[in-house]
Write a structure and sequence with these properties.
mainly alpha, Cytochrome Bc1 Complex, Chain D, domain 2, DNA polymerase, domain 1, 2 domains, two-stranded parallel sheet, 3% strand, globular, binds heme C
């Protein structure tokens, strides 16, 4: 019984460590720019960056969304929160493209309408073959609908 409990807590610790590592990797993939460090510190404590990468909002909407997170427990000075809003409006604004080399599954799904298998194929492909340079490179990913790729090419960034 004691052994079981020890294993269980080890397992929980290992899963938490794996989650932290994964979240750290995802945070590194966020676009560089003013405010990034603050976003990583304030906004990846409870969930990964996919929560905010998967949406596109204008500045007013990001202001509301960040206020909502403060209600849920996010902490930051007014200046830090303003920097977060600016970063998000800049990188995940209404017209922001989707960086297909760094976008997590949820962003590929929500912003480019890829199915889960298509998004997973894109992620596996870039991991094995390195960065996509242009939209046509996505045509090489087997299992991804080529018409969908072409229709979304203007929304893609590299
Ligand atoms: C204290 C915990 C906490 C912190 C810190 C936090 N969030 Fe959240 N956030 C949540 C919870 C809980 C949800 C809803 C459940 C989920 O989707 O994970 C959520 C969901 C979201 C969503 C999706 C909203 C929706 O309606 O689906 C966005 C966008 C978001 N967070 C952005 C941010 C941003 C930006 C920051 C940094 C300012 C932040 N979060 C910091 C707890 C937090």
């Amino acid at each position: 019984m004691k052994l079981m409990a020890a294993c269980k807590s080890l397992f929980v610790a290992a899963s938490a460590a794996a989650l932290c590592l994964a979240a750290g990797e995802d945070a590194k993939l966020l676009p560089d720019g003013p405010g990034k460090e603050i976003v990583v510190r304030l906004c990846t404590e409870c969930h990964g960056p996919e929560n905010f990468r998967k949406v596109r909002h204008d500045k007013d909407e990001w202001t509301d969304s960040v206020a909502d997170m403060v209600d849920r427990g996010a902490k930051g000075t007014p200046a830090e929160l303003a920097a977060v809003v600016d970063y998000l409006a800049q990188n995940f604004g209404s017209d922001s493209k989707v960086n297909v080399n760094t976008a997590p599954l949820q962003e590929l799904k929500a912003q480019l309408d890829f199915t889960v298998p298509e998004a997973l194929a894109v992620i596996a492909y870039r991991k094995d073959n390195g960065s996509f340079k242009e939209w046509r490179d996505l045509l090489k990913v087997s299992g991804v609908d080529p018409q969908k790729v072409e229709a979304r090419k203007e929304k893609m960034g590299f």
